[in-house]
């Protein structure tokens, strides 16, 4: 069974002490590849080095809204050059976060829109963060046009999911779906088009219900797979095959 973790922050310091061991556990669990999105310009060099050192890691470069205080106009200006030189699989992680207090909404919008324009210009997919901002995210994608990608850790409604699908966007589903209290998300995952579904861990964050309170890691993708398959009444093999194909197709990875 071959899986791709469509969203893993495998470059962060949480994995510095045992990155090789974590990667070995992931591979033993069938996780053959990971998409590793950036969060701020200061970490782009580290992300580049980690992905270069470990086969199966695929970098994306972007500016995450939760790191807004660290972002500068020159970081946006530098992003096209990084994309031109490094040939990442996507732009991101970028987006909007109206949940965290103190993050100026208009400044978020400025960074978000410019990154979408860069992704469109380079013909790359985007990896989106949309927390309490799904409706505005959809409106922004529709206004700019010519985009494709994934809304990671999706928490919106079935109608919002449908609109995103029509716009060419997938939904990233990870640890939150394993919690029984996440009834709306579970209903969505049970009914959504399989072609729209990507699996993720968001390591080291958002551990599954069986791993709560611990550092998440890509090997836990198997537990996300297990729950998604059960919710849909389909085999794990079927879900693994489809989601791996979806992820490979979106990011231009080996199938």
What can you tell me about this protein's structure?
- One of its GO terms (molecular function) is metal ion binding.
- This is TatD DNase family protein.
- This protein has 255 residues and is α/β, with parallel strands linked by helices.
- The chain contains 9 helices and 8 strands.
- The protein has a single domain, classed as Metal-dependent hydrolases (TIM Barrel, Alpha-Beta Barrel), CATH 3.20.20.140.
- The protein has an 8-stranded parallel β-sheet, sandwiched between helices.
- The relative contact order is 0.16.
- The model has no long low-confidence stretch (mean pLDDT 98).
List the helices and strands and how they pair.
Elements: E1 3-5, H1 19-28, E2 31-37, H2 44-53, E3 57-61, H3 73-86, E4 90-97, H4 105-122, E5 126-131, H5 134-144, E6 149-151, H6 158-166, E7 169-173, H7 183-191, E8 197-199, H8 221-232, H9 236-251
Parallel strand pairs: 1-2, 2-3, 3-4, 4-5, 5-6, 6-7, 7-8
Helix pairs in contact: 3-4, 8-9
GO cellular component, one term: cytosol
Binding site for a divalent metal cation 1: 7, 9, 93, 202
InterPro entries: DNase_TatD-rel_CS, Metal_Hydrolase, TatD-like
């Amino acid at each position: 069974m071959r899986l791709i973790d469509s969203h893993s922050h495998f470059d962060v310091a949480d994995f510095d002490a045992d990155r090789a061991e974590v990667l070995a556990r992931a591979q033993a669990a069938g996780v053959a590849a990971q998409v590793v999105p950036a969060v701020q310009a200061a970490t782009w060099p580290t992300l580049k080095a980690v992905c270069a050192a470990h086969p199966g890691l695929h970098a994306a470069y972007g500016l995450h809204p939760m790191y807004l205080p660290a972002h500068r106009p020159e970081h946006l200006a530098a992003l096209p050059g990084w994309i031109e030189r490094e040939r990442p699989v996507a732009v991101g992680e970028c987006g909007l976060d109206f949940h965290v207090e103190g993050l100026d909404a208009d400044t978020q919008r400025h960074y978000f829109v410019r990154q979408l324009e860069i992704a469109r210009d380079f013909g790359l997919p985007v990896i989106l963060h949309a927390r309490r901002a799904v409706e505005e995210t959809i409106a922004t994608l529709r206004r700019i046009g010519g985009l494709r990608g994934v809304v990671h850790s999706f928490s919106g409604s079935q109608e919002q999911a449908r609109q995103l699908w029509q716009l060419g966007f997938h939904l990233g589903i990870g640890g939150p779906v394993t919690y029984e209290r996440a009834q709306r998300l579970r209903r969505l995952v049970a009914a959504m088009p399989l072609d729209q579904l990507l699996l993720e861990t968001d390591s080291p964050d958002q551990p599954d219900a069986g791993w709560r309170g611990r550092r998440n890691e890509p090997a836990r993708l198997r537990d996300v797979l297990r729950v998604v398959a059960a919710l849909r009444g389909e085999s794990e093999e079927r879900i693994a095959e489809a989601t791996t194909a979806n992820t490979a197709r979106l990011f231009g990875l080996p199938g």
